[in-house]
Amino acid sequence: MGLPSTIVDGLQRGGRAFRVSNSTALFVVFHEAWALDIQEEDYTGDINDPDRPQKDLRSSSRRQERAPLSGIRLVQSSACIRRFYADYLDDKAPEGLRCHLVLRVVTLVHSG
Known about the structure:
Elements: H1 7-17, H2 63-66, H3 69-76, H4 81-88, H5 94-97
């Protein structure tokens, strides 16, 4: 559970659900509630790396510090999910930009 380490990794995992012809699939990204509180300004490092963690990682880094910026953008987005992935992949194809799949974020809170 948690955010994928890169958006490409998440796409690969989600794509498996849609590879079976004549089937319906649901691609769900589970994340912790803290992912909605992280600010983009908290991220340092290579600004050209959309999958960078918040800070340089250590063996003792917390999950929040390991969360990739792209994953935080994904769960905080209210845009079309197809457009989100097309922008991430720099996909300019017209079919990649047709929006009808709106991203709905569901945060599961575990008390326990």
